[in-house]
Structure formats: structure tokens, C-alpha cells
Amino acid sequence: xxxxxxxxxxxxxxxxxxxxxxxxxxxxxxxxxxxxxxxxxxxxxxxxxxxxxxxxxxxxxxxxxxxxxxxxxxxxxxxxxxxxxxxxxxxxxxxxxxxxxxxxxxxxxxxxxxxxxxxxxxxxxxxxxxxxxxxxxxxxxxxxxxxxxxxxxxxxxxxxxxxxxxxxxxxxxxxxxxxxxxxxxxxxxxxxxxxxxxxxxxxxxxxxxxxxxxxxxxxxxxxxxxxxxxxxxxxxxxxxxxxxxxxxxxxxxxxxxxxxxxxxxxxxxxxxxxxxxxxxxxxxxxxxxxxxxxxxxxxxxxxxxxxxxxxxxxxxxxxxxxxxxxxxxxxxxxxxxxxxxxxxxxxxxxxxxxxxxxxxxxxxxxxxxxxxxxxxxxxxxxxxxxxxxxxxxxxxxxxxxxxxxxxxxxxxxxxxxxxxxxxxxxxxxxxxxxxxxxxxxxxxxxxxxxxxxxxxxxxxxxxxxxxxxxxxxxxxxxxxxxxxxxxxxxxxxxxxxxxxxxxxxxxxxxxx
Length: 512
Hints:
Layout: E1 4-8, H1 11-25, E2 30-35, H2 52-58, H3 63-66, E3 73-75, E4 77-81, E5 89-93, E6 99-100, E7 103-104, H4 105-112, H5 119-123, H6 126-131, E8 167-169, H7 172-185, E9 189-192, E10 195-200, E11 206-211, E12 215-218, E13 221-224, H8 231-236, E14 241-243, E15 252-259, E16 270-275, E17 278-284, E18 288-295, H9 302-313, E19 323-326, E20 330-332, E21 336-337, E22 340-342, E23 348-349, H10 357-370, H11 379-406, H12 413-420, H13 425-434, H14 453-463, H15 480-499, H16 503-510
Parallel strand pairs: 1-2, 1-13, 2-9, 4-16, 13-22
Antiparallel strand pairs: 3-8, 4-5, 6-7, 10-11, 11-12, 14-20, 15-18, 15-19, 16-17, 17-18, 20-23, 21-22
Helix pairs in contact: 1-7, 1-10, 10-11, 11-14
């Protein structure tokens, strides 16, 4: 039996892992987390996937319990600004496309849609809620989408059948602190100390973690949550890291925490605004915004990036401290080697676009529970875990490269390079197909990676990679039902905008 797990590193990855393992296994597995008080946290991952609700429900935590303690806000989608031309924008919402007579509304939009109205405003209800800054919940706490409310219990990503309509914005450090309290209350041993040495046995497996003040911490399974350093998986075990910078050049970020002057309004979405050498995020928290510039240092210096960010989001606020971050873009060839599993930045990272960092953590932890080893250390479990983690990361890589290749912007050297930079062969074939027909379950990346066909099509259409013509089959189908569905989308959107409180109004209520 595997009786003990030692997690090296805290932050979001470490405390998500510790709390989830304790929720899954209770007292049957001892969990120790060691973290240094001197290691700073990256703290960039303040936006999430809608699937994160599975994580908190698995822990038995109600949203109203944890969200106010983490400066939390709602994320109904991502607003992409200036990726095609200055002043243009579109939304990538958490909403599946409706289907009429076997074809999605996106297909029908190509045949019938009002080209004076953007695709996303014609086909989704959520975009109207974003525009009106609405909360996804009524003041009584009920969800605006019927049938999706209530706890999911001990469910996982694999059991997501319906698209939940929102995700979260939060202070990542506050979430880590909240989960630390949760985990310690349930028996996780918390050691605050510096790691001086990683011990290995004669096989090369990790035997212990030596700390400066607490001596040796021994365990059966070790989890590396040491961030980009990869202290266990790379530095100790020599794990091979595969860089994605040939296709995703952004390798640095600079972040600011910006107080909001207008305290009675909040956007219920993340903003990703194209900039000269990358893009700028805006993540609204309850009392401030998180802002940052993700860029490639091939095209701009850190000093220039900081100046461009300040001019865009905080003019005149040179007093706000900037956090400069070097990002390791790619994944390990294997994130589970011997008796060590890497979770979080020590495993993989593909830049903050589409908010995948915390999704990777959640996915890796869930798969670790499903493929948890015993004393036999069956290599099949390790191989399958590595396969699933690698597929998820590689799928996201393809999806993010699509953003840059489909974007019409070409006004700076960075954006010109994005058009000709290497891309995965499979993605080239998908984009060629998308020039003729919309993608579907058979033609997007085939393994689980968190994004469904509607996401691939929303990005292609929003960025300007539009099929040359609608599907010929639609010429032979009565369009009455499709026209009626477009009308229902408009009516549903108007009704929800009228009924729902503002995002700030609802969050102010649950914050007391």
C-alpha cells in the first residue's frame, strides 16, 4: 500500500493537490506538504475553466463559502479585443452552440445570419450578459440556466455532460491560503522550511526530502509542485522538458495589481487584448483588477513591455509594483518518473491565454487519483497517466496556436511572424478544413484537452477564419426552424439581461 505522499511546494498547485488527495483518501493516506517561506509565488493564474466547479464540489465546498474569501468574481467567457483590427472584439463564452435540424447555429449563421451583427452576438445568449455586465446568478442564488444548479458531489472532469455557464476569477494566493486551511484541518501536515537536499535510493527513486530545520521527510510518493524550477522532476530525476517555443513564442509576462476606480461595476469576463508583441489580460476581482502583458522577448524588452502595460491599464500609476515573470513554455516528456509526479508549472505550461494553468492542475490531480499506485508500482498506471496528461497539454498547445494563426492582425513584426511561424502538422490540416466547413468532434484535436468543437469554431469565426461558403446541404432544408431559433436566442438574451442583477451587485451581496 502507498501510505504517504510528500508534496514539495505550496501555491495553487501544492494546496489543490493536498486538499484533493485528502478529500479522496481521507486518513488512509498521510499527506505532508513542505514549502519555503522564502519562495515567491507566480500568482498569474487568476482566471479558470468552468470545470473548476467539479474540484470545489469534490471537496464539499459551496461557492458562497469560498469565493468571497478569495476576492472572487465570475467569468462568463473571454473577450478578445483587437486581434483582427483595432476596435474589433468578440467573446468566447462558456456556452455550447444550439443545433437545428442537425446543424449548429454557427452553420446556420453562415447561411442566414445578419452579417451586420457579429457571429457571437447572433448565436449565443452569454454574450449579451457580458455586454450588460450581468451576474450568472439571481439575487436568491439561483442560476440563470435551468437544470444545472446544485452540487455535483464527488464528480470529475470526465463526468461533465452539460456546459456550465461560468468559471471564476480569484486571487490565486488567497485560494492557496484557503485550501491550506482546508487541508490542514483535515490532517495534512504543513511544514514551512527550506529544502536542502533531495535524497535518492540505489534505484534512483526519491527516498526523502531533507529540510533545514525539520530534518528528513520520507514518503512513498512525491509530488513536485516547485513551479518552473522542476526541483524534483527535472533537477533531481533528469526529466526531459519539451519546449513549445517553436510554435508559441511568448516566454515572459509582466503583471500589475490595479485598484478599480469604479467600485460599483465589474466585468463578468476576462479580457485578452492584442498588443504590439503579445496580449494584455484584464481579470476583474472584487476590489481590483489583475492585469498583465504576455509577450515574446524576441520582439520587445521587459522594460518596454512594462511601459506598454502601464500605459494601457494604469496610466499615471507608476507607484504600482510590477511583477516580471519568465515562463517555461512546454511540457515534460514524462511528468511522472519513478515515484515522483509533477503537477502544475513543474509539469507543463503553455502561457496564460485561455486560462489553462489551473485546468492542468485539476486534470493532473484527478488522473493521479484514478491511477494512484500501490506497492507494485505497476508501470501501466504511470504510462497511462503520462499519456493523458501529455494529450491534454498538446491539445491546448494546438488550440492556442490556432489563435495566432487565425488572427488577421499583421501590423507589427510580432504579428507578422505569427502568420509564418511553425505550427503542428495536424493543426495545419484542421485550419485548411476550417476554410471550407466548421470543425466537429471528428476534426478537432481528438483527445481530451478541455475544449469542445464550439470553442474551436468560435475562435476561428471570431478571428476571421470563416468558411468560404455555408454547407450546401442547408440550401435544401427549410430555414424556418433556424430563423425561429435565432429569434429565441435574442429573446432569451433580452429576458436574462432584464432579470439578472449586475455582477457587482450580486457579489457585493454574498460578500456582505
